[in-house]
Every structure is written in structure tokens, then in C-alpha cells.
Amino acid sequence: xxMVDLEADVAEILIDEEPLQVRIxxxxxxxxxxxxxxxxxxxxxxxxAIFFLADLMRRLTVxxxxxxxxxxxxxDGTDSSGVVRILKDLDASIAGRDVLVVEDIIDSGLTLSYxxxxxxxxxxxxxxxxxxxTKPERREIEIPVRYVGFDIPNKxxxxxxxxxxxxxRNLPYIGVLRPExxxxxx
Length: 186
Ligand code: IMP
Ligand code: MG
Description:
By secondary structure, the chain is of the alpha/beta class. It has helices at 3-8, 17-34, 50-57, 110-120, 179-185; strands at 10-15, 40-46, 64-72, 85-88, 98-106, 126-134, 147-151, 157-158, 174-177. The chain has a single domain (17-155), classed as Rossmann fold (3-Layer(aba) Sandwich), CATH 3.40.50. The protein is built from 5 helices and 9 strands. The strands form 2 sheets. It has a 6-stranded mixed sheet with strand order 4-3-2-5-6-7, with helices on both faces. A 3-stranded antiparallel sheet has the order 1-9-8. Magnesium ion is lined by residues 48, 74, 163. The site of magnesium ion has 3 residues, from loops.
């Protein structure tokens, strides 16, 4: 599959490379100011958040570390199953740490709400969330999200780490997946 084939499945570009990077610059400055004098632990949620996390972390001017968690939510479909399971846990304890969870996208909120419960129980000094994208219309559970990159409409998006059935993560922008792609694969 070449990039040309990948792009054929994109209905529209929702957020292009440049506005993405401009917004991540702003988030980097805001987070650096908020955590000044503290030592930050970024928790990346695999796999979708890795592109965003890597770009965001390079903008932070406070000392920081990273750790990762992997959680199952959607399988290969486009809708939340409601079944959430930890596939990979953090390597180290977060007790007493300032933790910032970095997520690619918050849709129903079910995945993050489960994750926040699990992390809160480990007694971090502070726990906040930074999500590149959120779909406010789709929210089923209210979760306080301290930092949001972009609010987006209720469309299935791909690229910049976001996948459909593990594909399209390597597109450099956030695009809307053609609905036919989903229809033809189910
Ligand atoms: P939630 O539990 O419904 O909030 O789903 C969160 C997870 O579903 C995200 O971390 C993504 O992995 C995935 N997801 C939700 N919406 C999209 C989308 O539009 N494109 C790609 N993945 C999505
Ligand atoms: Mg996914």
C-alpha cells in the first residue's frame, strides 16, 4: 500500500500538518508554564498517542519522563465496545508524581474514565489529561480534560497516530475516513 492508496481513503483533511504543529506549540508552552518547578511524568496511551506525545514532549521546557499504557477499547471497529482492559501497564509507580495522561482522542470517554480510575487509585500527587482531539457530541461520561488540542465533529478520523484497523497512522495530518472504507470492510 503506497501513500497514494492511503490518501484515496481520506474524504477530507480536517487538520493539516501546520495547524497541528502550531497548536502543539501552544500546548507545549501552556503545559511548561503550568508545571514550572515540578517534575512531570507523561503517560502515553498506546498506540495512537505516540506521534502527539513525541511532538509535545519536545516542546516542554520542564524536566519530564515518559511511561506508557496500552488499553483495549475498540478492537478493529469504529465504535466503543464498552469493554476496557489493560494490555500493558506502566513500568514504574506513579505514587507522589505529577502525572499528565496524553491521549490521541476522547470519543465516548469510556476508555479514559476507566484509565483515570485506575491511575487515581495509585495516589499520584496530581493527575491531568491532555488530549489532542475530542468529540464533545459523542461523550457518554464527563471527564475533566485540562488540555485539549482541537474539538472535532462526530466523524471517524485517521492519521497522525490515529488508526482504522491499525492502518493510516502514518498520514501526517488528521483526515476523515471515507465511510465506504468502513462499509466495505465489515
Ligand atoms: P472512547 O473510549 O470512546 O473515548 O474511545 C477512545 C479511543 O477510541 C481512542 O483512544 C482511539 O483509540 C479510539 N477512537 C475514537 N474515535 C476515533 C476516531 O475517530 N479515529 C480513530 N480512533 C478513534
Ligand atoms: Mg485505536
